[in-house]
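Thread: quick sanity check before group meeting

JM: Hey all, I'm pulling together slides for Thursday and realized we never actually wrote out the predicted structure for the chain we discussed last week. Dropping the sequence here so it's in one place. If anyone has concerns about the input, flag it before I start.
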Amino acid sequence: MITLTKEDGPADLDGVTHMSIGVSWDPTVGASGGVLGKLRQKKGTDLDLIAIAMHDGDPVRLAGLDSLDPLGNGSMVHSGDNQTGHGDGDDETVTVEFASLPSSITSIVFVAAAYKKGSSFQKARNISFKVYDATGGSSQQVADIWPSLLTQDNACAVAKAIRAGGTWKLEVINETGKIKQGDEHALMRFAVSK
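JM (edit): ok, ran it. Output follows.
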């Protein structure tokens, strides 16, 4: 297993037919400890993993939020919305089956965002992104992507899968920015800029 960084450049996904990216986080009490902090931690923090399918730089489909299978054929599937960050393992996952993606999809941008009002990266800790090779039906973690936690932003473009002829490459973006919470168009514009 490796830690992928932007400086590594695109990683070749030749031979990978199914890839998953997962995000996990833990709720935090923030600056307020005591009873109020414990209540906040119990309520949890809602971050969202969103995969945005692109055609030549234009967003055409979105997996995440309330859309679990936006292409309708199982080629880009979201695991569902975890609204608390509680539990072990990945809190949200997107799995891509490259061979079933329509040829018009030229890239997929993976974004983690504090999309809903009241959520924020500051209310989460231990945010991590994992890349899995799910070829052959079993998922094996092959890489980590570590985001910077020193941000006041509420979105992180994690990575981008790019069609390269008959194969795919995975490029780490790991750039944060601000989006207007609850605004799907702002989220898509953020992805387009990456």
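AS: nice. The mean pLDDT is 84. The first helix runs from residue 34 to 43.
JM: adding both to the slides.
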